[in-house]
Amino acid sequence: MKKRGYVSSVRSAAAAENRDRVIEAAAKLLREDASIARFSLDTVAKAAGVTRLTVYNQFGSRRGLLEAVFDGIARQGGLHEIADAMAMPDPLMALDRVVEIFCSFWARDAAIGRLHEAMATDPEFAEALLERNERRRKLVRMLTERVAAKTAARRAREGAVDMIFALTSYPMFAMLNRGRPTNEVCHLVQTACRAAVEPLSR
Amino acid sequence: MKKRGYVSSVRSAAAAENRDRVIEAAAKLLREDASIARFSLDTVAKAAGVTRLTVYNQFGSRRGLLEAVFDGIARQGGLHEIADAMAMPDPLMALDRVVEIFCSFWARDAAIGRLHEAMATDPEFAEALLERNERRRKLVRMLTERVAAKTAARRAREGAVDMIFALTSYPMFAMLNRGRPTNEVCHLVQTACRAAVEPLSR
DNA sequence: AAATTAGATATACAATATGTATAGTCAATT
DNA sequence: AATTGACTATACATATTGTATATCTAATTT
């Protein structure tokens, strides 16, 4: 009755391929639908050509699948350019660049909007996504500290950080994006962010 | 077999009382829960001491109940003070006051947050709530036009309108409200709104 | 007083979803 | 040849929205 076990490159490769197909199918469905309402594991499984049970084997739950979809988008989402932006000498230009990067990210895949909707019905998934956003808050805090004069009050700094964090969030992008191209949204957010840090610099 | 029909003040009063009890129970549950996830008509009905079918008789659907809850909150929500604010001679002070009114409104009842979550799973409810928000956009547009110089470009005006509309939205309030008292949120939003219209005035 | 009516109830049913449980299939590996 | 990993087939439990039908009760009309 002992399990000998084995690791098969052929099998794990096939499984990974299957996994990717499911993620891709889920992302496509999220992208095409205008709302998360119609999204179900059954539909995803059929679109991916597997059984619903396979989805559970791979992702554990609906939540697991959604997280995998988000991480898949994030991986190929251009967020790696943040390092270069943060290395820029002028903190205000760095801020502009970071805003631009996140605007592009939010605009990249319409599935991101559906995933944010999913936060409403699944608190644990919401927490998972919020954790991933905390990295952005750290970036914003670093930039704010670089801009702020030493005389600036702590409360004012925290206010600026949270304001910029909110301005660069997906909900903000989504609200500004209706009937407006991404680069214009980006410009609006950049201006608002600069206005938020300006009082700290003097 | 003819319906004679009759209108009874006693009956309709009793029905209205029942209706109010259901709305109140729903609002209370939405207020107490941290997420819309656990909200169900069965729970509401039991909390109100009626049958689930009674809820359907009164509101037609889950969506109908949610709309009734929102309208109930809006009715006693201090939004009537907007008229006085809009009548203020200085448009910037009027803007400050309008921001203050909406901050108070969003902060008034935690159920509002849950209702906004419900927009994710019910597109038609989302549309109903968005329609109610369009009134706010009109206010913002009026104030922006009052501030803007005649030389200000149309696109810049529209940008300012949408930015302020987003800044005064519930999602924005919710993002800034974590660990911060309402009046500080209000101040942050006021400052950001003033910064958004400032470029138009010169 | 008797018939009717509005509102609520009781009960059942249909349709979806998520999630769990068990046994079986098939090819890769030992 | 036996075992194992991934997937499948089928069934089941649970929760939720929404609909259908018959019944109950108190208010109202004739």
Order of helices and strands of chain A: HHHHHHHHHHH
Distance between the termini of chain A: 74 Å
Shape of chain A: elongated
pLDDT < 50 stretches of chain A: none
What is the CATH topology of the largest domain in chain A?
Tetracycline Repressor, domain 2
Number of domains of chain A: 2
The biggest chain-chain interface is: A-B, 34 and 33 residues
Strand content of chain A: under 5%
Largest sheet of chain A: none
Number of strands of chain A: 0
Radius of gyration of chain A: 20 Å
The quaternary organization reads as homodimer
Count of helix runs of chain A = 11
- Assign a percent range to the helix content of chain A: over 70%
Question: What does this 3D model show about the protein?
Answer:
The structure is a homodimer of 202-residue chains. With 202 residues, the first copy, chain A, is mainly alpha-helical. Chain A folds into two domains: 9-61, Orthogonal Bundle (Arc Repressor Mutant, subunit A), CATH 1.10.10; 75-201, Tetracycline Repressor, domain 2 (Orthogonal Bundle). Chain A is 76% helix and 0% strand. Chain A has eleven helices and no strands. The first copy, chain A, has helices at residues 9-32, 41-48, 52-59, 62-75, 82-86, 91-108, 111-121, 123-147, 154-167, 170-176, 182-201. In chain A, helix 1 (9-32) packs across helix 2 (41-48), helix 8 packs across helix 9 (154-167) and helix 9 runs antiparallel to helix 11. Chain A is elongated and about 65 Å long. The interface between A and B is medium-sized, with 34 and 33 residues. The first copy, chain A, binds a DNA duplex (30 and 30 nucleotides) through helix 1 and helix 3. Chains A, B: It comes from Bradyrhizobium lablabi.
